[in-house]
Design goal:
By secondary structure, the chain is an alpha/beta fold. It is built from 22 helices and 14 strands. It is elongated and about 80 Å long. Its EC number is 1.1.1.22.
């Protein structure tokens, strides 16, 4: 089939950019993107696009009105199209069988029924799955397409063409992809449909990168690819926790690992958890499929990838609380970045949501700033339970927004704050005037670098107490947690390891070697404390800690004066 007209159902993060690039590279092919939202279609027809991607506006402007169109008239454009892409969402189920893991197919079924009704007796059509879907979705869609037609039936050939673009680099990924997968049935009709789409891609993608394969292999390849990426991120995050406990530097370890040609350096940057619309959702889809097929061990293996991601986010929150004298109640904390990664407005499953909620649950007052995400989107994300953004009709408030302020700049967010949490690695955050920020913050001023992109040494020279994920702990934080190594050990890593061991699982090995303690005691049960009593204890602890900090500072000053006097005395004797 010679494809001259293309229609796409869905003008979201997948349909909009991918179809814009297709129209840009194939000027003789008419591409129409269809969406049920008039507001979204109007945004695509303006210069204020509904989503941000570097280079997207330029590509849209080059093709829009020439051979790229955005419309709400589904019936007309589906009937005229030779090839129909389906780019609708498959959100994770929130209730019922498979809740939290399985995908919901309501949008897909609605799209299939719309295609069947619009294309009655219109000749053969190719229907391509573009958005990632679980295995065997094409089979279900074929049944819906064939079962929803009356009278003269249209022959549909369903193929798989998963999209591998990444938010923040979507245009570059579409224009210069690593590979293009096209899966079809092992029949003459199926292979002909695969070849028809492959000819379009070969106009700008080298032939060796356009890969034809079986229908189920293509569908599974997308889930497996994202699962592998998520696994790498969780693996290096697990190593980052070990680095902190042993005094190693995760960036040095990551570099050493990445120089191995068998591993490569991609996706080996430690951070406070991965997010986005794909990784976690697809891993959980994979878990559910494995559970459904009785592959329990395989399901548990991939489930641990998600569990590690959740653990690293909660660990980051605990580190913030522990570092700030074990209480953040009433303290202002600036959160820099809310999108799940830089150069995108996508906030689906962003780590920032879990970090912010963890801080709020402990009583903090938050000031959030992101260069591209709208304040309304931030407030919406904070109000909805996890996964609800993909099902907008399910809106239930879960946290109070009274202590969440969305700032207009990073400097406004940090003004008067006790601590600063960097959650998204926007490039502009690296070039902030941290001396001015330090002057505007409460003291001691804390920086919690959840992405490892700031100059920790420079920040400490300014006066910040710095925690960088996967890096050796700031001396102030080690002192706070009873990790003062004294003067005898100095920087001896063996002394450091022993001190850390007293606070970690290494102490278990030591107790086994030394034998059980001579005496043991059983603590009597105590009555649970009220919230007021708990707050009073925290306030007392904070006062004692601040007094200790003042005594330590005074002692250090006196020691410095004594050393200075001793030096002057030695000079006079000489």
């Amino acid at each position: 089939m010679d494809i001259r007209k293309v229609a796409c159902i869905g003008a979201g993060y997948v349909g909009g950019p991918s179809m814009s690039c297709l129209a840009y590279k194939c000027p003789d092919v008419t591409v129409t993107v269809i969406d049920i939202s008039p507001e979204r279609v109007a945004a695509w027809n303006s210069d204020d696009l509904p989503l941000y991607e570097p280079g997207l506006l330029e590509v849209v402007k080059a093709a829009r009105g020439r051979n790229l169109f955005f419309s709400t008239d589904a019936q007309k454009h589906l009937a005229e199209a030779d090839l129909i892409f389906v780019c609708v969402n498959t959100p994770t189920k929130l209730t019922g069988v498979g809740a939290g893991k399985a995908a919901t197919f309501g949008f897909w079924e609605a799209a299939a029924r719309l295609i069947a009704a619009s294309c009655q007796g219109c000749g053969p059509k190719i229907v391509a799955e573009k958005s990632p879907v679980p295995v065997k979705t094409a089979q279900a869609m074929s049944r819906v397409l064939s079962g929803c037609q009356d009278g003269v039936k249209t022959r549909f050939e369903v193929i798989s063409n998963p999209e591998f673009m990444s938010a923040g680099t979507a245009i570059q990924d579409c224009l210069n992809p690593d590979r293009v997968l096209i899966g079809g049935r092992e029949t003459p009709e199926g292979q002909a449909a695969v070849e028809s789409l492959a000819r379009l891609y070969r106009r700008w993608v080298p032939s060796e990168r356009v890969l034809g394969m079986g229908l189920w292999s293509s569908e599974l390849a997308k889930l497996a690819a994202n699962a592998f990426l998520a696994q790498r991120v969780s693996s290096i995050n697990a190593i980052s926790a070990l680095c902190e406990e042993t005094g190693a530097d995760v960036q040095q370890v990551s570099h050493a690992i990445g120089t191995d040609s068998r591993i490569s350096p991609r996706f080996l940057a430690a951070g406070c958890g991965f997010g986005g619309p794909a990784l976690q959702k697809h891993v959980l889809n994979l878990v559910y499929i494995c559970e459904s097929l009785g592959l329990t061990q395989v399901a548990e293996y991939w489930q641990q990838v998600v569990d590690m991601n959740d653990w690293i986010k909660s660990r980051f929150v605990r580190r913030v609380i522990n570092s700030m004298f074990n209480t953040i109640r009433g303290k202002r904390i600036a959160v820099l970045g809310f999108a799940y990664k830089a150069n995108t407005t996508d906030t689906r499953d962003t780590a920032a949501i879990d970090v912010c909620r963890g801080l709020l649950l402990d009583g903090a007052a938050l000031s959030v700033y992101d260069p591209k995400v709208d304040p309304e989107q931030i407030h919406l994300d904070m109000c909805l339970p996890r996964g609800s953004l993909e099902q907008p009709r399910r809106q239930h408030t879960t946290v109070s927004l009274a202590t969440v302020d969305v700032a207009r700049s990073a400097y406004d967010a940090c003004r008067g704050a006790h601590g600063l949490c960097l959650v998204t690695d926007w490039p502009e955050f690296r070039s902030l005037d941290f001396r001015a920020i330090y002057a505007s913050m409460m003291k001691p001023a804390f920086v919690f670098d959840g992405r490892g992109v700031l100059d920790q040494r420079g920040l400490r020279e300014i006066g910040f107490v710095v925690y960088a994920l996967g890096k050796p702990l700031d001396p102030f934080l080690m002192q706070r947690q009873g990790w003062g190594f004294g003067e005898e050990g100095g920087d001896d890593p063996r002394v450091t390891r022993d001190a850390l061991g007293a606070r970690s699982g290494l102490s278990l090995l030591r107790r086994e070697h030394e034998g059980p303690a001579a005496t043991t005691s059983v603590e009597e049960p105590v009555e649970p404390k009220t919230e007021q009593q708990e707050q009073e204890l925290q306030d007392q602890e904070l006062q004692v800690q601040q007094e200790q900090l003042g005594l330590q500072t005074k002692s250090a000053e006196q020691e410095g004066e004594r050393e200075g006097e001793g030096g002057r005395e030695r000079g006079r004797k000489q």
